[in-house]
Amino acid sequence: METTRAGRPRLTERRRPGTTAREEILDAAGELFTTRGYASTSTRAIAEAVGIRQASLYHYFKTKDELLSALLHQTVTPTLTFLSALRHDDPSAAQCLHALAAFDGAQLLTSRWNLGALYLLPELREARLATFWTERERLRLAYLDLSRAILASTGVADDAADLPFRLVESLVNMWSQPPQSDHAKLAGHVADACLRVLGVSDDLPDLRASTHHYLGRNGPAKVGRL
Amino acid sequence: METTRAGRPRLTERRRPGTTAREEILDAAGELFTTRGYASTSTRAIAEAVGIRQASLYHYFKTKDELLSALLHQTVTPTLTFLSALRHDDPSAAQCLHALAAFDGAQLLTSRWNLGALYLLPELREARLATFWTERERLRLAYLDLSRAILASTGVADDAADLPFRLVESLVNMWSQPPQSDHAKLAGHVADACLRVLGVSDDLPDLRASTHHYLGRNGPAKVGRL
Question: Measured between alpha carbons, how far apart are the two ends of chain B, in Å?
């Protein structure tokens, strides 16, 4: 058990992870949206879960939609940042897709709340979440481009091109809290599976090695969250 | 354009597909749960969408949970029935998995409402939906057993065993209404992908032929819905 840092309790005990009020609010919203449901959660309930007044919450987020949008961005932004860094190394399409899937999968599996589960909410079709959809579409198209480049050399039908993105996304259904101890291994197997559905199998040991290298340098721990 | 069967309108116009009031209610609930959200939909709104009184609805379903449970069963029951019929033919594990995935995938893609999108609802953790979870778990374990039998001969890591089920499930994210015209083709490609993630690739043409045979006999059109 950890000892507390201060001898006597702070007047305003910090209840949530995060170094800023904004992060604490996002954490509470992530918990309530994914455990009680989006429609059933009020901004007042979120403020109460953080231990602040509703008026203070509005200082950071004007609407519940804004909170949802910020949370959803957290599910794609780190991966887009990783991909952007990865591309500086000029990896092959197969190396790039394998590393991308392993990173993205690990992100989804280790998120504190299962935010990916919110993707299918009817509320998400709202135009107000358009910037999130644009970013997610950017990510999907990045997967698609890489998949198509690989399919061109394996001869597997082009219909398989969307499956790697969907395979990684399906990790949302395997999320657990606390994360499975072998989440990095599971994400790695999903990365393998992404290549297999495109018809690649012989090169997997080499691809695992290059992914290990890329993730070691730019892996989840080194990419900013929130 | 179709001509109407009767010269003058019926007093109580049937608004929804289904031959019984129960089916009409389920259709309306499926639409509202998947478009407006479960928490935001009242049983009164469902009754109104069917054109009946709320008291009449309660005659068929006592609670909103009962409605949700019935809808969710529709997403797994036809597949379990298909699998049961399939087993009488004593197919190999690979043949069985390929046909199962193609059938299950086609079901998910052609359902009138995207009911699979409800799987991740926080409300679904409720104990009242236990019978649905039991059936879905039966289906998941059937996939898992088949996958493990295949992995034993391909030498791919056992961690891939859950991926075929997840791949098919990911079709929930590709659902559209009306269904894509090539939904059977897409489901077939996902069936191929299920085998590929387990390390099978050479036998795919044969597996497609056997699946074509099994689906022709017991395919979606011949399996009862609702």
Answer: 27
pLDDT at res. B13:
61
Lowest mean pLDDT among A90-94, B105-109, B168-172: B168-172
| Domain limits, chain B | 21-62, 73-221
The CATH architecture one would assign to domain A65-221 is Orthogonal Bundle (1.10)
Q: How far apart are CA B103 and CA B1, in angstroms?
A: 31
Cross-chain Cβ contact A163/B189 below 8 Å: yes
- Contact of B172 with chain A, judged by CB distance below 8 Å, is answered with yes
The class of domain B21-62 in CATH terms is mainly alpha
Contact across the interface for B163 and A40, Cβ inside 8 Å:
no
Contacts of B49-54 with C-beta under 8 Å, sequence gap 24+, read B49/B15, B50/B15, B50/B16, B50/B21, B50/B24, B50/B25, B51/B12, B51/B13, B51/B15, B52/B21, B52/B25
CB contact under 8 A, A170 and B174: no
Whether residue B161 is predicted with pLDDT greater than 90 in this model: the reply is yes
Candidate from A121, A185, A199 with C-beta closest to B201: A199
Do residue A39 and residue B34 have CB atoms under 8 angstroms apart? no
Q: State whether residue B163 sits within 8 Å of chain A by CB.
A: yes
**pLDDT at residue number A5:** 42
What pLDDT does residue B40 have? 86
- The pLDDT value recorded for residue A91 is 97
In angstroms, how far apart are the furthest CA atoms of chain B? 67
Q: Do the chains contact at A189 and B40, CB–CB below 8 Å?
A: no
* Bond prior to A91 in cis (omega within 30° of 0): no
State percent of chain B over pLDDT 70. Answer: 88
User: Is the Cβ pair B37, A35 closer than 8 Å?
Assistant: no
Looking at residue B20, what DSSP letter applies? S
Question: Cα(B100)–Cα(B94) distance, rounded to whole angstroms?
Answer: 10
The verdict on A186 touching B (C-beta cutoff 8 Å) is yes
Q: In whole angstroms, give the CA distance from residue A198 to residue A210.
A: 18
Contact status of A185 with chain B (Cβ, < 8 Å) = yes
